[in-house]
Design a protein that fits this description.
By secondary structure, the protein is an alpha+beta fold. Helices cover 24% and strands 27% of the residues. The chain has a two-stranded antiparallel sheet.
Amino acid sequence: MTDQSNRPDTRNDLRLADRIRDALSGLRYGSVEIVVHDGRIVQIERRERVRFERTESNPGASQ
């Protein structure tokens, strides 16, 4: 019988890698934060910034 307690769970690792890739996909401005507890990834946060160009055609915009 082999000891599997120290073997990495490659299926889980691949799923996590896919989730991180998904979080990065299409991100133009922002960040992806990976939260680790006890050596394991427990959370992936994606923060996206949406930037708008200021146009002169908007007379009510503050300067």
